[in-house]
Design goal:
Strand order of the largest sheet: 9-10-14-13-12-11
Radius of gyration: 18 Å
Structural class: mainly beta
Helix content: 10-25%
Largest sheet: 6 strands, antiparallel
Number of helices: 2
Distance between the termini: 41 Å
Number of domains: 2
């Protein structure tokens, strides 16, 4: 691990009043659950981790890592995922996980993988919503999801937020969306509707 990353781990550990957890060089393997074009897997970070190799067996090839999500929210930033690589034709993903000692029992690291055709990066909406992405939950025609759909969800969410209305559920483009706050950096909102997931960074106050 590069010196700068190792130093960062030490700084984080000191800030939380702990040290990196033992034992070192542990290994864990999980299947990525979903479709050959979009899947998700979760690893426990309970108690922390030191130089722990995680392996994800993917249901398809030519996938990419779309997002890394740590829960509960306050543990985000108390871990480092390094030495990431794909092997065996892209069907296996490995990485090294370091997380500070003292992680709560419910600490989890969730990784989402998808084929490039299953997700789009859609930019921002001025003065309110940024880092917009849209991904498929099911295998659909690539033309079935667009950035215009993602931005329509972002605009509706922002309008309701500014009007002090609930943003937990609403209808946009004829689809019913359910939204929640997620500890994803830089995105903090996730809206699920139909066969799609829209994520973006929205304001947390007015």
């Amino acid at each position: 691990m590069p010196g700068s990353r190792r130093a960062l781990i030490v700084v984080i550990a000191a800030a939380l009043g702990g040290t990196l957890a033992a034992p070192a060089d542990a290994q864990v393997s999980e299947r990525c659950l979903g479709t050959p074009t979009l899947c998700e897997t979760t690893f426990s970070m309970a108690g922390g981790a030191s130089n722990k190799q995680i392996t994800v067996r993917l249901p398809g090839t030519n996938l990419r890592l779309l997002s890394v999500n740590a829960t509960p929210g306050f543990v985000h930033g108390a871990y480092i995922l390094s030495r990431r690589r794909f092997s065996e034709g892209g069907s296996v993903f490995t990485a090294t996980l370091d997380a500070v000692q003292g992680m709560p029992r419910n600490a989890r690291l969730t990784l989402m993988f998808g084929h490039p055709s299953t997700a789009l990066s859609c930019g921002s909406i001025p003065r309110g919503v940024s880092f917009i992405t849209i991904a498929q939950i099911a295998s659909l025609s690539p033309r079935s999801f667009t950035c215009s759909l993602a931005k329509a969800v972002g605009r509706r969410w922002l309008a309701r937020f500014k009007a002090h209305r609930s943003v937990r559920s609403f209808t946009a483009t004829g689809i019913r969306w359910s939204c929640r706050l997620v500890p994803v950096v830089p995105q903090n909102q996730e809206c699920v509707g139909g066969n799609f997931v829209v994520r973006f960074s929205g304001p947390t106050g007015i």
